[in-house]
Amino acid sequence: MSENQHHIIQKVAVEAIQNELTSLQVLPSFIQNDFIKAIEIILASNGRVVLTGIGKSAIIAQKISATMNSTGQPALFMHAADAIHGDLGMIQKDDVIIAISKSGNTPEIKALAPLLKQFGNTLVAIVGNMNSELAKMADLVIDTTIDKEACPNNLAPTTSTTAQLIMGDAIAIALLQLRNFSGQDFSKYHPGGALGKKLYLKFK
Hints:
It is built from nine helices and five strands, in the order ααβαβαβαβαβααα. By secondary structure, it is an alpha/beta fold.
């Protein structure tokens, strides 16, 4: 591989990172009343957080669910496509539902949102389009609109999914801190691997 190609790879990668970082700087301004209300409702609930999405947003929903479970907030993932084919039975009356979507207008999300509403659970949208069907249907809306993707064609979900992940992390950390979830609590959920060993030695 030539030195010129090395330079091109480095340049493209650095630009991708810088583009994401620049676009994501807007996120703190989106921590507004609906975000705060969502945290308060989850804290007051005796149920779980049910996260759902389609495509890349589904992968982000899975990760946020895993983060919540490891930090003291019971959560589960429900794929939006499977939900309309029977998985809606996973939802219990005290659960809070978080639907994640960039457009908020995918066919699966548009079909799912009214079905979720009929259960009477609080529906929170993490969405990149505040004029979408999902945003209109949700009880609370957390904005993750970004100006452009890191993809040079502005098509592949890159910055938008990072924005979703950051907002999900913000929810998990807010819940963790308000519940005074300690390092010792954390160690109970991470018994395996290098992290488990480190925590065991620290808190035994």
